Amino acid sequence: QVQLQASGGGLVQPGGSLKLSCAASGGIFSFSFMAWYRQAPGKQRELVASIRSIGTTNYAEGVKGRFTISRGNAENTVYLQMNALKPDDTAVYYCHATTPAWVVYWGQGTKITVSS
Fold it and tell me: What is the pLDDT of residue 28?
């Protein structure tokens, strides 16, 4: 019933910025953990950034200092601000959320292409 809906993907030049958004719908819920994953061509899906309900954040080494994950006031939204984008950031990005009871939800993929 619960769905995660992502938006914000597209084509951007190297050094540019994009902001991804993800919102949950379909029920009353509270997420203890929300995250963004990505999967580049020929590579396995990897965790990019995560944020817990208490506010703790973690980032993949390759995006530290460039990406910022945050949660909206509605508690059912998560954002990923991506700055100084590189061609290696090109991937399909996926929104992820986990409830305190460890029920896992995935959003649809949104494609980010970083190219001149």
Answer: 61
